[in-house]
Fold:
Amino acid sequence: MEITVRVATILLKKADPPLASTRFTLEVPEGLEVRGLIDTLSMPAKLVGSVTINKKRQPMEAVIAPGDVVAIIPAISGG
Structure:
């Protein structure tokens, strides 16, 4: 199934291999969870602050559906 992935610029170089664009389509297997997408992109999970699917925040166990737009948002620290 095909999904659209949006990644914050700061996370592009954290994937292995580094991602070339902040927005791209990706072919993934049916039933893939958000956690599986993070693994597929070889992105350190500790750097992911939250994930939205179709602009709604979702847990790592959420299942991604065909055509979904998944946004990966970095963890923010400071104070």
Summary: The chain has one helix and five strands. The longest strand covers residues 2-7.
